[in-house]
Design a protein that fits this description.
527 residues, alpha/beta, Double Stranded RNA Binding Domain, eight-stranded parallel β-barrel, binds 3-methyl-2-oxobutanoic acid, binds zinc ion
C-alpha cells in the first residue's frame, strides 16, 4: 500500500543547486543529550520557534523510544504548517511503524531510518555481513515509504565506512526509494578535507535518481562539526543536519546558527544559501537556553553575549570610523540588536515589541503578569536586558503556578557560622505555613524551612547560581535539583536577590511535586 499523499514534493525534478536545506535535529539529537531534555510543552514552543526560523525539516523525536517521545512527535506533526516533520527509526518494523503512526497527521512527513555501515559497527554492534546490512536497509526503506511522504536513509558511522561499500549501500537505498542519503560522522572523527573527499566521491559514484540529495550530519567531538558540514556543502551536500546552539549527543552537533551565517556572510565563496530567517537565530537560541536552563557560553559564535562586543580600544576606534573594520556581520542580522534597552520608564508597547522580537507572543493575561514583573524588576535594576526579558517571559519557572506561594522570607548568614531562614508560605487552598530553619549556608537553611512548611521531604542533588546579565544589579538565576521519594525534580528561580531566587527554585520543585500528586501531598501536609 502506498501512502495516500505520496508525492515527490519539492524533490520533483532536480533539487535547487543554490539552496541547502536545513534539517534541524534540536528536538531529537539535541534533546537526547544529558541536561537538554524538554517536556512536551517546551518541545512545542521550540517547534513553533523553529518553524518561524524557517527550517526545512524538523526532526521531532524518536517515537519508538518512549510513549512520551511518540506523543511529542505526534503533537509536533499535527501543529506544523510549513516544515516537513521527521521521525527517527531504526531499521526495525516496530520503530518504523511507530514513526509512521506518530507522523500520521503531518502535512508533510519524513521517516528517517538509520543503520550502521562501518566495519567496526557491522562486526561488533550488528554482527551482520555487508550483504545483510544492505538487505535490512532496503526492507526498512520500503516499509517506511508506505507510511509517510518521504524517506531519508542514514548510514550510521558513514565516515568510517569503506567508500566503495557506502556507494553500494546508497545505490540500494536510492533504488528502494530514499530521497535523502545522509552520511553522518557519528563519532565526530573526520576532518574537512576527508569530508570533501567523501562527498566528491559519492557525487561521482552513486547512481542517484532525479531529486535525490546528499546530506551531512556532523558531531563535534574534535570541534570540527561546522567545518566538516561546510566542507560537505562545498562538495555538493544539499542538506545539513544541525541543532540550535550546537546541542547534541556528547560534544554536540553542528551549530545551525554558525552554518547559516557562514553561508550568508561568505555568500560569494559558498554560492549557496538557506531558507533561514537569520534575524530569528538569536531569539531561538535564547529560547532554547531558557527552556533547557542551559546558558549559551559567552564566547559562542553568532549567539554568545560577546559575539558582537568590542572591548579593545583599537577595535572600538576602528569601528567608530567604519563598522566593517572589525565587524563581519551586524548583530541585527541575527536578531541580537541591543540598541533597545528597557528601563522603568518603558511602557507596555515597547515591552511587547521587544518580547515579540525575542520570540514571545503573549496573550493579554500573560502580558499583564510579565509587565507587572517587568516593572518590579525595573525598579530594582537600572537596565532590563534581553536575558532578563527571556527569564521573565519564559517564566524561568518560579512558583507562579502555585499552589504554594511565598508571602515573606528572611535570611541571614554569618561568616564562619551557620545561616538561618524564615519563610512564610501560602497555599492556594488557604493554608498558611511559617517555618524557620538553620543550615550550612542559606541554601541548606532554605531547603529545610520549605520542607518543614510544606511537609515535602527533599534531598538536594545539585545547586547552581549564575548571573543572567552583567553588572552588580544583575539578576541571579538559581537552578536546583532534588530528589523526592526516589524521583529527581529540577526547579529554577530568578531574582536580583540570589537567596530569593533559591527560594523560588525550591518552591518550583515543591509545587511540581504537588501538582503531580495532590493527594499524596495533602496526606504529607497533615502529618
Ligand atoms: O549521529 C548519528 O549517526 C545519528 C544518526 C541517527 C543519523 O544521529
Ligand atoms: Zn547524531
Amino acid at each position: 500500500m502506498s501512502h495516500p499523499n505520496h508525492t515527490t514534493h519539492e524533490n520533483d525534478g532536480e533539487p535547487d543547486v543554490g539552496r541547502v536545506r536545513i534539517f534541524d535535529t534540536t528536538l531529537r539529537d539535541g534533546e537526547q543529550a544529558p541536561g537538554f531534555s524538554m517536556d512536551r510543552r517546551a518541545k512545542m514552543r521550540m517547534a513553533h520557534a523553529l518553524e518561524e526560523l524557517g527550517v526545512d525539516v524538523m526532526e521531532a523525536g524518536f517515537p519508538a523510544a518512549s510513549p512520551d517521545d511518540f506523543a511529542a512527535v505526534a503533537e509536533v506533526a499535527k501543529a506544523m504548517k510549513a516544515p516537513t516533520v521527521c521521525a527517527l527509526a531504526r531499521c526495525q518494523p516496530g520503530d518504523i511503524d511507530a514513526a509512521g503512526k506518530a507522523l500520521a497527521q503531518a502535512r508533510r512527513s519524513r521517516i528517517h531510518v538509520f543503520l550502521s555501515t562501518s566495519p567496526l559497527h557491522r562486526e561488533h554492534k550488528l554482527g551482520k555481513t555487508k550483504a545483510e546490512v544492505v538487505d535490512i536497509a532496503i526492507a526498512a526503506i520500503k516499509r517506511a515509504k508506505d507510511q509517510c511522504h518521504e524517506v531519508e536513509f542514514s548510514a550510521e558511522d558513514a565516515l568510517r565506512t569503506e567508500h566503495d561499500y557506502l556507494v553500494e549501500v546508497f545505490n540500494a537505498a536510492a533504488d528502494a526509494g530514499a530521497i535523502v542519503l545522509n552520511a553522518p560522522d557519528t563519532v565526530g572523527y573526520t576532518t574537512p578535507a576527508e569530508m570533501a573527499e567523501l562527498f566528491t566521491y559519492l557525487q561521482a559514484n552513486v547512481r542517484r535518481p532525479k531529486g535525490v540529495i546528499f546530506s551531512a550530519h556532523c558531531h563535534d567531538d574534535l570541534g570540527l562539526a561546522v567545518a566538516n558540514s561546510m566542507a560537505a556543502i562545498s562538495a555538493g551536500a544539499r542538506q545539513v543536519e544541525c541543532t540550535i546552539n550546537g546541542i547534541g549527543e556528547r560534544a554536540g552537533n553542528a551549530a545551525m546558527e554558525e552554518i547559516v551565517m557562514a553561508l550568508r556572510t561568505r555568500a560569494p565563496y559558498f554560492k549557496v544559501d538557506t531558507g533561514i530567517v537569520s534575524e530569528r537565530l538569536y531569539p531561538t537560541s535564547r529560547l532554547l537556553a531558557n527552556l533547557t536552563q542551559q546558558p549559551v557560553p559567552r564566547n559562542k559564535a553568532i549567539v554568545g553575549d560577546n559575539a558582537f562586543a568590542h572591548e579593545s580600544g583599537i577595535h572600538q576606534h576602528g569601528m567608530l570610523k567604519h563598522r566593517g573594520t572589525y565587524e563581519i556581520m551586524r548583530p541585527e542580522d541575527v536578531g541580537a540588536s541591543t540598541s533597545l534597552v528597557l528601563g522603568k520608564h518603558s511602557g507596555r508597547h515597547a515591552l511587547r515589541q521587544r518580547l515579540a522580537a525575542l520570540g514571545f507572543e503573549l496573550d493579554e493575561a500573560a502580558m499583564d503578569d510579565v509587565f507587572a514583573n517587568f516593572k518590579k524588576l525595573a525598579d530594582r535594576k537600572r537596565e532590563v536586558v534581553d536575558a532578563d526579558l527571556v527569564a521573565l517571559a519564559g517564566g524561568a519557572d518560579p512558583e507562579t503556578q502555585g499552589p504554594w506561594r511565598i508571602q515573606n522570607m528572611h535570611a541571614s548568614s554569618h561568616v564562619g557560622g551557620s545561616a538561618s531562614v524564615t519563610v512564610q508560605l501560602r497555599h492556594d487552598d488557604g493554608r498558611e505555613a511559617s517555618e524557620a530553619a538553620i543550615g550550612d549556608g542559606p541554601v541548606d537553611a532554605m531547603l529545610r524551612a520549605v520542607q518543614r512548611a510544606t511537609g515535602q521531604p527533599l534531598e538536594l542533588v545539585d545547586f547552581q547560581v549564575r548571573a543572567i546579565s552583567q553588572g552588580g544589579d544583575a539578576q541571579g538565576h538559581a537552578s536546583l535539583s532534588a530528589t523526592h521519594l526516589g524521583h529527581e525534580y529540577r526547579g529554577n528561580g530568578v531574582s536580583t536577590d540570589i537567596v530569593e531566587a533559591t527560594a523560588h527554585a525550591v518552591l518550583a520543585i515543591v509545587n511540581r511535586i504537588e501538582r503531580q500528586a495532590p493527594q499524596t501531598a495533602a496526606v504529607a501536609a497533615q502529618r
